[in-house]
Design a protein that fits this description.
Helix content is 0%, strand content 48%. It contains no helices and eleven strands. The radius of gyration is 13 Å and the shape is globular.
Amino acid sequence: VQLQASGGGLVQAGGSLRLSCAGSGRTFNSVAMGWFRQAPGKEREFVATINWSGGSTSYADSVKGRFTISRNNAKNTVYLQMNTLKPEDTATYYCAARRYTLTATGDYDYDYWGQGTLVTVSS
């Protein structure tokens, strides 16, 4: 599975962005996906995960109620809709895929990673 993330940019606090992660490979539709982020000087952290069908999702407490993960398997794409953005959401966001169908929150659970896309939220 190869992954390509896009959609990052500069936005004011309170604004919205939608990240996309396009995947290639025949197994994309059968694997769980996740979004992680890494702020400067900090460790990478879990943001959201979705199972193979889109029927199960999980979020970090810091983004719950503001971010929504979804997927369109017909387009081999996973999305992260980010609303009510805060300056502390500033980070490079990474999408990842794991070889299993179920969600997971640890970065060690994921086998494939896309390049990051930078999100900057100004105050």
